[in-house]
């Protein structure tokens, strides 16, 4: 098939792609390991990104030739010349056919037209976003997992491990009576500190973020896990309030895999927001929206003075 648009939503935990026909129909899609533009800061990271793009291109070409690509990458800061080359070459496209932006810009357009509302996104990290009517992007949070990203998967994982190991400082072996600790250590592979240390400091942040699944799975049996998830909801509500304070009241959409881990997250977030602010949780697929943007081939990355259209999702 030809005349297709390729959309890519690359996050720290998972990278998803989709091919869309000019009429918006999704004709193929797939996923692979996560990647981040932040990996471009090291030679090893650059090699992994290039290999990921090559593998993605091979999967896509089985289904057809894209005419244009719209890709959203977590950690993208605007300097994407090398990334565009590495993505265009294995797809057999000119560099000019590849448009890159933040993954959050893509996620926003999957829910709102510019100016309509605020997106709060919780994946491996977290961020609040608004693209105004002039196409200018505004943010709250999204400062990275070391500094903040409260309510994201990495933050949830870090809070759980911090609690577990503080308890072990006071009472070695206490983890055996904790459903949260047992679930976390089962995912890590054991209760030895060396395993936790390697897990937190020796892997990509997306892999660490996956530990949030164990926290959510133990929330009904362990009040500490439930408390961590409630605090995640409060952190995400803070992002929405920050945007509302700066730009006025608008509807809020909550998106991202971490946000959907457990109802405690969205329910707590809703309770923390004023009744006058509408909150909706969405499972809109950003890679579908990106593919449809690419299929129309009329979009440029959001910047001052640029109109960025909203694309309907399924």
TrEMBL record:
Signal peptide: none annotated. Transmembrane segments: none annotated. InterPro entries: ATPase_BadF, ATPase_NBD, Euk-type_GlcNAc_Kinase. Residues 6-263 form the ATPase BadF/BadG/BcrA/BcrD type domain. It comes from the Bacteria. This is ATPase. It comes from Massilia mucilaginosa.
